[in-house]
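Work through this:
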Amino acid sequence: MGHPPDEPPTITERLRAARARWPDVSVDDDHFARYLAARAGDDLSIDALNTDDLYLACACAAGDDAALRTFERELLPTIDGALRRMSLAPSIADDVKQSLRTQLFVAAAGDEPGITKYSGRGDLRGWLRVTAVRAALKALRPYRRAPDFDDDELLLEVADDQTDPELAHVKRVYRGQLKHAVAAACAKLSARERNLLRLSTIDQLSIDQIGELYRVHRATSARWLNRARERLVVLTRELLEAQLRLSRTEQQHVVALVRSQLDLSLPRVLSAGDKDEPSAGE
């Protein structure tokens, strides 16, 4: 049975859709509900999350064999084109893929598998391509004297799944403005908001680890992080709309562009600047 267009699907309906998408994968209902809630926090609707992909990621994080086989078969090959664009030697490409498997699915002591870093705010395939390219860039760094490509541009390119021609057009036209707008928007954030984004995006800390640093509950750290991300989205959108004369359709695509590309633009923007010291209390 359907529901009114202004009423989002329930968790039960989302579970049903995710299981239809990944029929060989199984996740306990309560466990998946908690997994979704942790990524939504208090300020983000579950309706804004890519729950089908989060379902697969949740199962992979739990070590489900069927989920890992599905990921290996259907998602891992999507990074091959991105690695080919970097002109990697076959041996280095193989090493990157093996390193990526370890990073995503093997939890270090006291930590969670890297797949839990996928927030569900975009497509899992795009997130995976970006993660793979970052791993490759890190592997290449000791051997690169003068890079023959721009890291940011490469990341933006490989993350583009090209499924929406209008969105792809907006990306091509406004990519430069987006990078400048994100940097300007970051400057408007508080020191703590920038540090939260830095800890999550660059240091790759989990919500639990961020909570430990600030000596607050994980729900509070999740709420702070989501609030910082959403404020950055709003500020970036406002700056772009003030600079550009956009149609209503383009405005909608710009919002989608900001959300999908935020994690790609943040590392370089946040790599310099001040850091506030974590402290307890909100």
Q: What stands out?
A: Residues 162-282 form one domain. The chain is about 65% helix and 0% strand.
